Amino acid sequence: MDGKHNARVEHDLLGEMTIISDDLRGIHTLRAAQNFTVSGRAVHPKLIHAYALVKKACALSNLAVGRLDEARAGAIASACDEVSAGTLDRYFTLDALQGGAGTSTNMNLNEVIANRANELLGCSSESGADSVHPLDHVNLHQSTNDTYPTALKVCVTGMLREAADAAASLQGALQKKEREFADIVTTGRTELQPAVPMTLGAIFSGFAEAAGRDRWRTFKCEERVRTVNLGGTAVGSGLAAPRAYIFRVTDTLRELTGYPLARAENLVDQTANIDSLVEIAGILSSFAANLIKTSRDLRFLAHEGEISLPAFQAGSSIMPGKVNPVICEAVIQAGMRARSSCALVGEAASHGTLQINEYLPLVADAMTESLDLIASSCRMLSQLVDGITANAERCRAFVDANPIIVTAFLPYIGYERAQALLAEYSATRSDKSISIREFLGEQLGVELVDRVLSPEALSALGFPDSVGVRVQPGQQTPKGDGK
Fold it and tell me: Average per-residue pLDDT in the chain?
């Protein structure tokens, strides 16, 4: 393509720049692309798509209050639709970490939308009488300081819903295994040491409940980002924006997104402070912590042979037949990365000054990364959980060999007698010729042992007063069913 005949010249405060005609970006965007080469990551596409909805709401509101003509407003709205649909993503490649509190991202939107709107109108230049200008029209009655935080909250709302849905899928997968493993008795563990017996289903119920809390907390986070400062312009005072527009624009955005957005009562506060995002980051950090713990526990149970994880890929380049718990390890890493990003949100929020937070690009990058990592981790973990199988014989072997199972008989024989039985077992059966379970069967009766160590008894919350009679020290040890 001949640059001389297929180029346009744009100017800004610093001078002029020649731009290829079919490039929808403008001089402000291209300068930012040259200036910010920090992370190598682009602004998250979902933030761009959300920002386009904000721009559309602004255009339609300006049309409604008579500040923008129908032709320009329609073209801007159509261009915004294309951006929000992702068809123009190739023009949004600015580095995620940029100075100016997101001004470069705002200008990227303004320029691409204006140039695309002009194409739709058949205008060859943004300087024509009927053309769309990125600042005079697309950015009309707006500032980066009210549109960027609003776009980020819209973006976060959508991503929170995705994360909550992913948590629901994980919860469902874990609950399925809870039911499937309800009758398998295994050994509980505290501090990685054998503890009292419990069912494998109960272990998975703990995982499922944690996922359920994450689902609920993530869903409720949406309430923290429903108030926006759109219309507040530069410092939250609404300077240079008509009152009719200010009172209308958030309502328009609510209609476009379907989210329960509301204009903040104090726009200055919502422009200066982003503690609501810090609060969400804290909740996401706890979500990631649960994902890490669940993955670590599944990895341990697989190592002990109580469960088998589905094989997803070969585990070694030199050891044939080796299969590793790679999904668990990936989720653990993702969780650690998400928790680190969540911590960055709080750090960045604390560095805001007076009427603005200059580090919103870092907040946006950290928040979107955390939400992506959490949602994708939930989906991966759900797939893993679906394929988990239990090794009932291995679980039974752990129980039968675990001296701590005597704890289950305390209501029947008391602590002193239980301790004496363990001492006798250790002294007379040190060769482990029989298991502790078999020994207790000899001493207390097989029927009682089987009943006390049954899935039903171990799944019950405590024991009924009608079951078992505690024997005081010195009394005869009960036989049979203990009655």
Answer: 92
- 294 and 214 Cβ atoms separated by less than 8 Å: no
Q: Does one domain contain both 122 and 181?
A: no
Q: What pLDDT, on the 0 to 100 scale, is given for residue 3?
A: 44
What percent of the chain has a predicted confidence (pLDDT) above 70?
A: 94
CATH code, domain with 124: 1.10.275.10
Residues identified as active-site: 316
Instruction: Say how far apart CA 450 and CA 138 lie, in whole Å.
Output: 76
Contacts of 146 (CB under 8 A, 6+ apart): 229, 230, 231, 232, 233, 234, 236, 267, 271
CB atoms within 10 A of CB 130: 12
When pLDDT is cut at 50, 70 and 90, the band that residue 480 belongs to is very low
465 belongs to a structural domain: no
In a domain, 454, yes or no: yes
Domain that holds residue 34: 7-140
pTM comes to 0.91
Task: State the burial class of residue 260 (Cβ atoms within 10 Å of its Cβ: 0-12, 13-18, 19+).
Answer: exposed
pLDDT in tens, 10-31: 888 888 989 898 899 989 999 9
Same domain, 169 and 53: no
Instruction: Assess if residue 480 is contained within a domain.
Output: no
Q: Which amino acid is located at 242 in the chain?
A: P
